[in-house]
Design goal:
Length: about 180
């Protein structure tokens, strides 16, 4: 019974997200940006999010996380023009980061802003941070830190990330010695 309630809520959510009524449920909508949204894509994305959320808030069920990764991957492969593709990549990156798979985390943070240049800057900061601190690819990290800093539009936007990135740019470019 609980599973049926989840399925119904996922289907309902997909209709709400695309503004469909019953007779248009199979139609795709092409947004101004050229991306596509469909009820099927939205339902698959919602299912992946649900699996991820079921994994738990702090100590997570890794089997459910891996199922959600698989569902996000299926979603990306099946709906490469979806308006949620960058969101799926960002969520995958967070899961990979939790699982200490930093290579795949970076790859997905990068996919996030490559697929949608308007994506919030935090994906760039996270990619740079993992390249810098976990993978030792500091030249690449420096470039992405600088790119992220150039995209900040408000003085208080992502304040903690900005401070870290500014410090690391100085350290990686040799302007100051790294803090111990």
């Amino acid at each position: 019974m609980a599973r049926l309630a989840v399925i119904v809520s996922v289907i309902t959510l997909s209709f709400v997200l695309v503004g469909c009524n019953g007779k248009d449920s199979g139609k795709a909508q092409v947004l101004d940006t050229g991306v596509v949204t469909t009820p099927d894509a939205n339902a698959m994305y919602a299912e992946a999010v649900h699996l991820e959320e079921q994994a738990g808030p702090l100590i997570k069920n890794e089997a459910l996380l891996r199922k959600s990764l698989d569902k996000y991957d299926q979603f990306i492969n099946k709906y490469p023009k979806s308006d949620k593709i960058d969101d799926a990549a960002f969520r995958m990156a967070g899961i990979y980061e939790y699982l200490n798979d930093y290579t795949n985390a970076v790859k997905n943070y990068q996919r996030t802003y490559q697929w949608n240049p308007q994506t919030p800057t935090v994906a760039r900061f996270k990619a740079a941070y993992l390249l810098d601190t976990q993978l030792g690819r500091r030249a690449e990290a420096l470039q992405i830190y600088q790119e992220a800093l150039s995209k900040i539009t408000k003085s208080n936007e992502h304040r903690q990330w900005v401070a870290l990135a500014e410090q690391r740019v100085k350290e990686l470019s040799g302007e100051v010695k790294p803090q111990q």
